[in-house]
Amino acid sequence: MQVMRFFAGSQATVVLEGVNLAIESAAAEADALVGKLQRVRANGTVHSNAEREVIAIVGYVASPNGLNGEGFLKDWIEQAGAAVAFDVERQANLLREETEKALSVAGP
Hints:
- This protein is an alpha/beta fold.
- The chain has one domain.
- The protein is 39% helix and 25% strand.
- It has three helices and four strands.
- It has a four-stranded mixed β-sheet with strand order 1-2-3-4, with helices on both faces.
- α1 packs parallel to α2.
- It is globular, with a radius of gyration of 14 Å.
- The two termini are 24 Å apart.
């Protein structure tokens, strides 16, 4: 299983992923992403310690005029994938801030 980006700190693992919610196969892409995040947690991440916290952050591409019916996919990713999700165009600063915060929590 490949993850877009991950950082294994001393306290937690940060997983940074992306998904395109503006395409026709967005539901399948969201399901695949949720499954990947669930497997990361179930497998103890990249370390053998299953108690290790996994912080999942997802950047998503929305429809040109914002979320047009794909809001339920964003919610699904956040709930079932135990992640926070940000629109990469409209919430780029929040995405960056949340990533920096997560890296700080993860430790060196």
